């Protein structure tokens, strides 16, 4: 759906994007992540046609009339109602959706009860929902979403993430966010920007598998000091963190070493084990290792 080659953007002496080769597959949900100032909003602006690159090229297998953009702080005329905003967005499209589509997307965005209120009194989170409703009303082929859940409460975030998940396969979504748990949940592919360069691009599952040191959370009946000390002395243990009076996190050199040796250490120290579970890798763990 999207291919960029050598994409570069300068603002005077500031290099915002440096030689970006982006590849976004049709029907995917592509997560664009990175620290503040990494170039995410600039890249989305170029893809949306709102900014011109300094160098490089952008190829998109979609007409501009089938692209919809949600900025991180959507704004609308305060005297309009939510229903009027979405209906106006519906009529702006090259192929306006049926009128009943307005009610559908207001409901999906959780705004049915506020549909006829002037939006001048809306909170930032409600404006974020309204922006999303206006973005999807004409069912565009490509959605560019800049921080769509950043201002939402937990319920609002849940609704937005569910909505983005439902779009997979029907539309292509480029989803910029600093909330890495959201990216891990809804995105199948991720691009990590660091100082304007693409530090990683590929599937989320492949990225998570790159964490080479498995971790385990073990809950024990106190006292646990003898067991903690024995684990710290074991040559297959990379690190041990005592998280409280009854819990310890163990980082092992390999899964095989942990599986063959952990039980023996617990038995030798007569540890009373309440639970033992592997700690799943999180996107935050891996990304921090890339961008710092």
Q: What does this entry look like structurally?
A:
The protein is α/β, with parallel strands linked by helices and 292 residues long. Helices cover 34% and strands 28% of the residues. The protein has 10 helices and 14 strands. The strands form 3 sheets. Strands 6-7-8-4-9-10 form a 6-stranded mixed sheet, sandwiched between helices. β12 and β13 form a beta hairpin. α3 crosses α4. The longest helix is centred in the middle third of the chain and has 14 residues. The radius of gyration is 24 Å and the shape is elongated.
Tell me which oligomeric state these chains represent. single chain
Counted by DSSP, the helix tally is 10
Adjacency order of strands in the biggest sheet? 6-7-8-4-9-10
Q: Using only CA atoms, what is the Rg?
A: 24 Å
Percent of residues in beta strands? 25-35%
Global shape: elongated
Distance between the termini: 31 Å
Largest sheet: 6 strands, mixed
Report the uncertain regions: none
Overall pLDDT level: 90
Order of helices and strands: EEEEHEEHHHEHEHEEHEHEEHEH
What's the number of extended β-strand segments?
14
Structural class: alpha/beta
- Give the proportion of residues in helices: 25-40%
Keywords:
single chain, 292 residues, alpha/beta, six-stranded mixed sheet, 10 helices, 34% helix, elongated
Task: Write a short abstract of this structure.
This protein is an alpha/beta fold and 292 residues long.
